[in-house]
Amino acid sequence: IKESDTGLAAPSQWDLVSDKQMMQEEQPLQ
């Protein structure tokens, strides 16, 4: 997997960012 695939950084880092965004979006819904 290359950096160009995610468009941001390493896939592991991108996963952390996406996880944080999902958590922030789920909190107000609950």
What's the short version?
Residues 1-30 are annotated as: Disordered. Helix content is 77%, strand content 0%. The chain is built from two helices and no strands.
Structural description of this entry:
Residues 1-30 are annotated as: Disordered. By secondary structure, this protein is mainly alpha-helical. Helices cover 77% and strands 0% of the residues. It has 2 helices and no strands. It is rod-shaped. The model has no long low-confidence stretch (mean pLDDT 66).
Based on DSSP secondary structure assignment, what is the total number of beta strands?
Answer: 0
Q: Could you spell the SSE succession in H and E letters?
A: HH
| Coarse structural class | mainly alpha
Radius of gyration: 12 Å
Head-to-tail CA distance between termini? 35 Å
Q: Percent of residues in helical segments?
A: over 70%
* pLDDT < 50 stretches: none
Mean pLDDT: 66
Residue share in β-strands: under 5%
Shape: rod-shaped
Q: Helical segment tally?
A: 2
Described by strand count, sense and barrel closure, the largest sheet is: none
Region (Disordered): 1-30
List descriptors.
30 residues, mainly alpha, 77% helix, rod-shaped
